[in-house]
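fyi for ur records
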Amino acid sequence: MRIGVLSDSHDNVPKVEAAVDLFVAEGVGMVIHAGDFVAPFAVAPLARLECPVVAVFGNNDGERVGLARAFADIGEVHPNVAEAELHGRRIAVTHYPEVAEPLSLAGRHDLVVYGHTHRVDIQPRAGLLVNPGETGGWVTGRCTVALVDLDAMDVEIRELG
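which gave:
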């Protein structure tokens, strides 16, 4: 079972659409977004996903009421930390590294996902710590997402074209 992970899409709708295309093609069982959608219209492409979507708000998500409404028929969005379970794996999601670090060391989650830094980060801890980098590509110039294999607990970073 694999999941798709993205973060920091920052209104780059074509890249969110490319991520959705990839996740649908790969048949992922869940998609996680670690925050910074920015505007509600940037959530719309996620409606094409054929699996649950779990997300958290980031520091640039100012229109939270509108974003929550956009998520109403797509999945769930949480203010700070989201927890999910899939395929026997416990997953935590946050936007912030200072929250993710202790979560990944505590040993209560198999996978901890975060964003905010716009940089890919994969660290084996008590729970695997993953930042997929930035989907929007505005800071680093790279538009990336992650595919996480929950059986092997392996991470593959994919660059979006």
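The CA atoms of residues 107 and 126 lie 5 Å apart. thats all i got for now
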